[in-house]
Structure formats: C-alpha cells, structure tokens
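Self-study notes.
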Amino acid sequence: MKGHDALGEAEIVAAICALDWQGLTRAELMDAMWAYYFFSIQFRENLLVARALFPGDAKLKALESEECDTANLSPYPGVADEDERLNHDEFMRRAIGLVPMDARRSREIRRHGTRYLEAVRRSDPDARALSIASYERGGLEQVFRAILTAPHWDNPALAAFHHFLRGHLQLDDHHGSLVGHLNTQEKAAPLWLLFHDLLLDCVPCFARAKQAEALPALIVCMPAAAQV
C-alpha cells in the first residue's frame, strides 16, 4: 500500500484488518506486537500534541488521564504491580520483555520502528492531533478485534498483549465519546498508512502476501511481448 496517498482512513483501517492475522505463527504475532509497541508510543506522543493544540479541551484531558500514567491495565503478572500507574506504551515495552528475542531480529524491528516514529514526528501537527479521534472513534477497535483473531496467545508476552487488547476494547466505547467532537477531516489517513506499512515491514508474511496479491495485476499490465 506504500504510495497510496489518496486512500481514506476507513479504507486503510480495512486493509490493516484484512491482513492474515489468523495465519500468524507465535513468532510472527510477536513481530506484530513489536509493531504495535511503536504505534503505542506515537499514540501517546500524538495525544500530547492534541493536548497542546487544544489545551482547554476537558475531554482530551480526561482521555489523557486514562491513557497516560494510569493503573487501568494493572495489575498484570511480570508487567505491572497492583495499582501501578504507567503509560500504555510502557506496559507494552515490559510485556515484550517477558519473552527473549533473537538479538539480530530485535535490531531489525527496532530499526523499522525508529524509522516509523521519525516519520510520524515529521508529520503535520494537526494531523497528529486529529489522529487520536480517528484511532479512538472505532479505528483501533476494528484493528484490535482483527488482531485478536490470531490463534496463538500462549507465551507470557502474547498473553500480556491479549490482556492489553481486551482491556482497550472495554475502554474504547467510553474513549470514543471523548473525541466525538473532533472532525478528523481525513487528516489521519497518512498516519494510518504509516502504521500499515510498519506492519508489513515488521511481519514479513504480511508483505509477502501483499506482493503475491499484486502479481496478477502486474502481469496484466505488462506489454504483450514481455509476457511471452
């Protein structure tokens, strides 16, 4: 989907949900968990951008209190103590650490994640702020439900990720009401696209599937002489 800048938010969310979550191995789901960890960092940072742009918005202030320095995912064994307050990306960072990862693979995924965060941080501040509305008004709920169709959740890190996702599904109806007054004006589409492409970078089987889907179209578009 790289380069498809004309796509809208709903179309990109649908493309993320249509990835083969049900076909992931444990290792591949761990890769996706890493990708979501980087997404959770930009979510927190974008929420802070929104708070700075709309400092008097009481609903955004309430959302910040439930996403940052909060105990609403605590306790969780090996990750968060009883009533411990932490940012949700910190929960994800600790959860990932429950299962050791090959050092070379870790460096590769961190490289993808760092590049993704740099791209988000270069994005238009208005788009970053309004992305929170797109995420919380149904977009992330759809993505979480798609991820939860994956079959393997039986290592400590993935079990913690499952807890994270289920916990957010319980929060998201309320969170959606806190951003319902914001019109995203489709400005969040580039940020959704960056997340889609991060998933393809971090989870190789997603990229291979997308390449395979494109092959028939490429063959049709080739000149007749080149098809012989």
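Second protein, same conventions, sequence then structure:
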Amino acid sequence: MNYETIELKTNRLIIKRGEKEDFLKVYEYDFAYLKNVDGVCKLVKQDKSKIEKLFKGGMKKYYAKIKKAHMFDWIIYFGNIPIGNILTQDESSCDKKIEVTFNSHPSYWGNGYMIEALSGVIEYLYSIGYDNIICKYSDGNIKAKRVLDKLGFKPYEIIKDAWVSENNNKIDDYKVIMTKEDWFSRTGKLIKIKDSL
C-alpha cells in the first residue's frame, strides 16, 4: 500500500498535505477546550510551540515520518483557507482497519465541511484497501458525535475513564466504526477495484 498523503477534492473542498503555517492556523485554539467536556466550550489560544515541534526539520521530513508510520495527514482547505485537519493512525493490517481523527477550526463549524471532507477521505481509504474505519470522540463532545452520527458510524467500543478533565471528572471515550459494506450500502457508491493482472 502506498502511504502517500495525496490530494483529494470534494464539491467545495481540497484535502491535501499542508504547510506548517496551515497547521498553526487550524490549531489556533486548543482543541482540548473545544470539546464541551464538563459543559464548557471555550476559545483558548494554543501554545504554538507545541505545534511547531512537530515540524522540526521541515515538512518534507514530517511527511516522510507520517508515511513511514503508515499514516496519512491532510489539511482541509476551503478555497485557499486551511479550515481543518484529518489524520489517520493505528492501522491494523490483519483486519484492514484504520483510525481517523479530525478537527475543524471553530470559525468554520456548522457548514457541513467536516462531513464533506470525511466522506472524501473515507471513500479514498476504502478505495486503497481498508475495510473498517474507526473514529473516537469523548463524552461531552457533541459536535464530533453529531458528525459521526450523520455519516452513519455505529457504536464499537467504550473506553471507561479514558482520561481526567480539568475539573477532575473521569471522561469516557467512545469508538465508532464504519465498515466498507455499511458505507457503500448507505451511499450507493461503488468502489473501483484495481485489476490484479
């Protein structure tokens, strides 16, 4: 399998490799405070040095590490504006499973961009050989749950007391799954299979 983060296009969006400045714009706010955990959703500026450390050595080196780790990392663009990020991790080749995480800058919430971007990435991941896509959200993260519900993900696993919130509450994480069969029966789209000869 080729783990190159290639460019994808949807009706309104371009999903492709990003530059450091694009990641800094997407992660302007600390997503830990945007999850609505403990009933609080607030805009808190991110410590940019944490993000910049990821790209020490330049973008070519960063994407080489991503590729070597069997991951993909896309920035979502609306026009030329970076509005979100989709990252894959925790590939399992025995059951053709991969985990997808996503974030969107709060200025672009409520426009359906993440559903559109995830749909494009999901179709791409199925087209290159994955059978199962896993996503995760935390208790209280209503926006992420709503996106995954709209896409048709189904319950898969509950991780009790996965982490402790700022107010010392134990927070559960929920994993949801989309199988290739569920996706294509729901969307009615057929996948192109490469010839084996």
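Instructor comment on the second fold: The first strand starts at residue 8 and ends at 9.
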